[in-house]
Amino acid sequence: MHKKYAFTVLLTLALLLVVIQPALAADTTAVLDGGVCINEVLIDPTGSTYNFDTDGNGTASATDEFVELYNLSASAIDISGWELWDAGVNNWYTFQGAVDSGTTMLQPNAYAVVVIGVQSGGSLPTMTNPASLSFDAGRGSAVMNDGGDNVVLYDPGADQYIQLLYNGDAVDDPPTTYSGFSATATRVGSAEDWGNDEDGISLTHSPSGDTNVVQHNSTYGSGASPNAVILTNTSAQAPTRTFWAALAAAGLLIYTASKRRRSKDVA
């Protein structure tokens, strides 16, 4: 291929990549300890069209609800002692494990799934990412309100929390309205509105850790993925628009230099 056309192709491809490259830099700002976000929630496992059996016991039930965390940072983060809260039941789960024991150390790109209650004949999801963690809250009834609710994750060590809401619920103020919640706690980022769910289908960041939230089946086909990696999105590993912009600029410079050189040769 003639150099003129080769440089033109390079420049065109680079510019196209800038346009079509997903906005990987649009990470959610609702993160604790610099990297852990709420990534996926299954609000109502049972429905007239879809059902999701999280614990695999053969029956989708209310206790198949789950909350999934994701570490979008480049560093391991210990979530020991962190708490999940709800307006109706207050502190419904505390992550167990001694600090730095490794049992609650969430690695980069890894997930931590909390199932509301593993029932007889069921088990925690087998994580396809070996660095991911799974926990059983051990409850016998649902936690999340199908008609609308807030999900709150609190880090007592930093006295900070993150929060999401769904199905048109109003934003809760945990420090003043949740019984036993820290009155001095501050929220990191905004209270994220995750929109409306569909029974048997989870809501999830897409890709993981991004600001974008979708109904799971609309992007991934299945009803939920409490045990699998879904299009991880981390600044440490994923290329960004900056990279492609630099490539485009380099292509333009090379092409311009080549064109000037050819012009001098003709003169």
Kindly list the characteristics that best describe this protein.
267 residues, alpha+beta, 2 domains, six-stranded mixed sheet, 22% strand, globular
The average pLDDT score comes to: 83
What is the N-to-C succession of helices and strands?
A: HEEEEEEEEEEHEEEEHH
Count of discrete domains = 2
Low-confidence stretches: 16-25, 231-249
How large is the share of residues in beta strands? 15-25%
Largest sheet descriptor? 6 strands, mixed
State the end-to-end CA separation: 24 Å
Determine the fraction of residues in helical runs and give it as a percent range: 10-25%
Number of helices: 4
Radius of gyration: 23 Å
Shape: globular
Structural class: alpha+beta
Widest sheet: strand ordering: 8-7-2-1-13-14
Strand tally: 14
What does this structure look like?
This protein is α+β, with helices and mostly antiparallel strands and 267 residues long. It has two domains: 3-21 and 241-266, no CATH class; 36-220, no CATH class. The protein is 20% helix and 22% strand. It has four helices and 14 strands. The protein has helices at residues 3-20, 174-177, 216-220, 241-266; strands at residues 36-42, 66-71, 77-78, 83-86, 90-94, 105-106, 111-115, 133-136, 149-155, 160-166, 186-187, 192-193, 203-205, 213-215. The strands form three sheets. The protein has a six-stranded mixed beta sheet. Strands 4, 5, 9, 10, 11 and 12 form a six-stranded mixed beta sheet that branches. A two-stranded antiparallel ribbon has the order 3-6. The longest helix has 26 residues, at 241-266. The chain is globular and about 45 Å long. The two termini are 24 Å apart. The model is unreliable at 16-25 and 231-249 (pLDDT under 50).
